[in-house]
Structures are given as structure tokens and as C-alpha cells.
Amino acid sequence: MAERGKFGTKIGVIFATVGSAVGLGNIWRFPYMTGQDGGAAFILIYLVCILILGIPGMAAEFVVGRHGASNAARAYYKLGGKRWSAVGYMGAATSIIILGFYAVIAGWCMQYLFASIFGEISGDVTYVSTYFKTFSSDPIRPLIWTVAFILVTHMVVIRGVRRGIEKVSNVLMPTLFVLLLVIVVASCTLPGAGEGITFLFKPDFSKVTHSVFLDSLGQAFFSLSLGTACLCTYSSYFSRQTNLLKSAGQIAFLDTMVAILAGLMIFPAAFSVGVSPDSGPSLIFITLPNVFQQAFTPTLGYIIGILFYALLSLAALTSTISMHEIGTAVFYEELHISRKKGAVLETIIAVFIGVFCCLSCGAADLTLFGKTFLDCCDYLTSNILLPLGSFLTCILIGWIVPRKTVKDEFTNWGTVSASLYQIWLFLIRYVSPLGIAAVFLHQMGLI
């Protein structure tokens, strides 16, 4: 088997790993949750959650990945033994399921990008709503987009870490930031945009409930891809000189910046035309097309619509690349086959899942436990597998792995300051597991 790849540059490490975290969760889920949970107060609590759960959790997964220098299953095996390799396998399985249903939503974004280019989604809210329902329930077009998106992801991953993932991330992430900033500037200069900016940055603590705390914790958890084995897999390509805690902080900062910029992109425009900020999951495909038409001149609205769906498609691609790489690494290293064959196996399984998810959105009656197949995949991964994987990682690093091994990885064998080590270890042993357990119980409807 060929020698494992490594990221070639520090900026490559940051862009690739930020790309794995930045996705539709930042640009779609974060704004609508902010709208539902009271705006700025939600954001402040979210930032605290990033500090006490997100960054420590990321660093813990980095410890597992870099120490193992292998796929997730083998990395957990090296630190905890055979039983703990199950956590890595679970992460790989989770990533394949996510890739399957995520590609469906990414395909919708691509359809809307092309529809925006050809002026197909101009009209009132009723028309746009009907357009979305008609398209998503079509048995052919969403299927084509889903498979195409997975194949594009496949073509990046088979090129390897440095020539594929790092090279593409170095182009996609700056492009994503530029597109985001262009739309933010356009949105914030609209008449009445100030009300949306105020909503985003002036806290109203009267709206804070225990549910807002748990939603903030959950968003921090999901936004950073904790528990998917993604961070573990990417950190297996880190060099021994990479400062794990510093990298986690930089990645969390950039990921959060994208989320807040997404809020600045959406809320000023929404408030300028009197649209409620708590439109929920329909925000992207039903509410915003109409907002762009009302808020801007016809020409500018046309351009903003195209840029917005291009932005969504790029964000989705950076995430699907990381999801694909997790399973690919497990397949080719554990089955002792080539990277190309491992990627093909990953792609076939993801397409199979994607097809069922796609058809369940209206083209066929594919339901489980009263949910569509897509919703079941989302529920299984988001509410059960991700929290469980992250919780077990904290237990492994905080309680099972010898303290010296953990400290050596955290401090780069004594070359990085250990001043924050004890604080980080306390968070990983006590605070993070309790926070993750709270998210898990909340998602299950138990608290």
C-alpha cells in the first residue's frame, strides 16, 4: 500500500479542515435557528458553547487522529484497543449515511443555481413553494443531481490528500468567503437593513429558555463536525509540528465567522422586506428566493440569487469531500486495496443511500417509523450517532488513554506550551461529556 498522504502547508490544513466543518449547517441551519431562538442572545450562548465544547472536542479528535496516523477505525484501535475501534467504524458508517442524504440537499442547491441562472424561480412565495415541491418530488431530476454531486466529490477524493482535498480546498474556501462577503455587503446596504443587524447583534435575554441553551450547544456540536470521525481522519494527515489546540481554535473561529456572516447575509435582507426571521428549514428554498426578488432591483436580485446558490453549492461540496474521505480511508487501508478502489466502494454505497433518500421526498412512499427515509437518516446520524461518537471520544481521551500519551500529543512532545493542558483535560473529562449528554437527551426529547 502506498505511503499515506500529508497536508503540504499550514494554510492547507486550515482550509481543508474548515471546509469539512463549513457547510449548509452554517449557511442554512445557523441563521434559521438564530431566528427561532431570539437572535443575538442565541449567538452569545453559541459562542460560549464553542469555547467549552467545540474547541476542546476538536482537539480531542485531533489527538486520536494524529496519534493513529491512519483511518478512524485503526486510530481508535491504536489508542484504546479492539473494542474502541468500533467508534471509528461507527464514525465511518455515520459519514457514509450523511454523505448519502447530504448529497440530496446539495443537489437541490445545484438545481436552484441553474434555475436562478435561467430565471425559473422568479415569482411570489406560492409559486416558489410549488416549484420546490414539484422539483423535490420528481423521480428523475433530483436523482440526477444527487448522483452528479457524489461523483464530483469522488473525483476530488481519488486524487489524494495533497493533489485532491488540499488543492481543491485552497480554491473553494477563499471563493466561498468572497461570495459570502459580496452578498453581505449587498444585504447590509438595503433600506431597513439596520433592523436585521440589530436583531443579530443586540441580545434580548428575555427570550432565553433552557431550550435555547441546548439548541446553541447542539448547533456548536454539529457545526464543527464533532463525532463524524471527520476531524480524526483529517488530523491523521497532520504533521507532528501542527499545534492541535491552536488549529482547533483557528478552525472554530473561521467556522463561526462564516455562520455569523451568513446571518448578516440573510437577516438584513429579510427585515428590509418584512419577512419573519424564523422561517425555519424552508428558508433557503422557499423564503429567500422571494426575499432577493423583493429586496433588490431585478438585475441585482438575479445576480444575488445566482451567487447565493453558488455559495451553497460550494459549501456543500467542502463538506461532502470530508464525508467521502472518512469512509474511503477506512476501506482502502483496512481492506488493503488502492485508494481509487476504496473511493469507488464509498461512492457506490453513498449513491445507493442517496437514491433512497431522494425518492423518499415525494417520488415514492419510502418511510420508516413515520418519517421519510431522508429524515430517518438525518435523525439517526444527528440525534444518535454523532453525539454518541463524540461522547465516547471524550471518555477515551479523558479517562482511558494514558495521561502521558495525551499530553505528548497535546504539547507536540513538549515543544508547545502546556499552560492550557490541565484546563483542556478538565473540560474533556467532565464538561464536554455532560454537555454532549444534555444535547443527546434534548434531541431525543427526554429533557
Structural class, judged by helices and strands?
Answer: mainly alpha
- Helix content, binned percent: over 70%
Report the portion of residues in β strands: under 5%
* Largest sheet features: 2 strands, antiparallel
Overview of this protein structure:
The protein is an all-alpha fold and 447 residues long. 76% of the residues lie in helices and 1% in strands. The chain is built from 18 helices and two strands. It has helices at 10-21, 24-36, 40-68, 72-80, 82-117, 125-136, 141-157, 161-188, 193-201, 210-223, 230-235, 244-272, 287-295, 298-334, 339-359, 373-400, 403-410, 421-443, and strands spanning 367-368, 371-372. A two-stranded antiparallel ribbon has the order 1-2. Helix 1 crosses helix 14 and helix 13 (287-295) runs antiparallel to helix 14 (298-334). It is globular. The termini are far apart. The model has no long low-confidence stretch (mean pLDDT 89).
